[in-house]
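Morning!

As promised:
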Amino acid sequence: MSIINTASTTRADLPSLDLMFPQELISLEVSAQLPSDLQIRPLASTDYKRGHLDVLSGLSVVNDLGEVAWVNQFHAMRATPGAYFSIVILDKASDKIIGVGTVFIERKFLRGLGSVGHVEDIAVDKNYQGKKLGLRIIQALTHISESSGCYKTILNCNDTNIPFYEKCGYVKKENEMAKYAPERVNNAPKL
Amino acid sequence: MSIINTASTTRADLPSLDLMFPQELISLEVSAQLPSDLQIRPLASTDYKRGHLDVLSGLSVVNDLGEVAWVNQFHAMRATPGAYFSIVILDKASDKIIGVGTVFIERKFLRGLGSVGHVEDIAVDKNYQGKKLGLRIIQALTHISESSGCYKTILNCNDTNIPFYEKCGYVKKENEMAKYAPERVNNAPKL
């Protein structure tokens, strides 16, 4: 009982945050399973300062363009309602982000004009690994996807991570093929 | 010369169509390589009548909800500018769609707030196969993705289709993992 009360996040815990989407879309069950010193919630417009990109840098090239550009991207994503759902796990004591992930929802003409959730860019601070936080992020994002009516949720991963995603309820389906743009385009900053 | 003139599509060919995005984003090079009796262009709001879902039904479950619902989905996609780019290949004589494909563009916080193009739902009418139309669709979608500044374009395919996508300039990267929603959600029509 006390675990649920301390670990779950309510509106009262987020008095002044400008969130990407409503906190109600975060699974209460997942919130309750987090250690009590951590909090899971939607990405907020002030999360650049809490180290959002620091956590992502453990996953891939970040190329930080600064806070103003980051905030603009946050607002551009939120301007397409029902599309982007980025979440974070915070260490409450330090007010630092230590886990991140996103699901974005694609509309289709197939499957009764159905939708598919694409899970992207999952990362956990290396000092917080071994606490099942990756699993919690996947569970929370899958919950958002399925609550939004997606008939399936997909993600791409390397061979090493297949067993982890199988534990999350996913099965290997197909192959991801990629084509990188010519270097000139690749390195051009977006305006 | 005459091949280019007849096969490429200009604004003059599309006098009254309500398109998902501007025709200018369709590669002129790809247009010019099509047989002269075919035309490649953005999806139009009246393409339900031209058999858009008939072509998609060769790929997956369509579950046709009727024209009004289809048009609503078209407008919902277009209401998120820079996100959805669905294209079609038409047989000019019959005014029927015989090839389809979509790329949608995902914004990220990684890679200098970069974008990734996701190629989805490629299908060609079985009576028109063997004319490299699948290749043309992939080339056109990749052109849209790269022109939009995406640092990479990705897609998922089964083992059999890997050589085809390699010919399109793609390489196998990772594994697609999928989780299907519970049946109750899966079959629920979207409101």
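Residues 7 and 36 of chain B are 4 Å apart (CA to CA).

Hope this helps with the figure draft.
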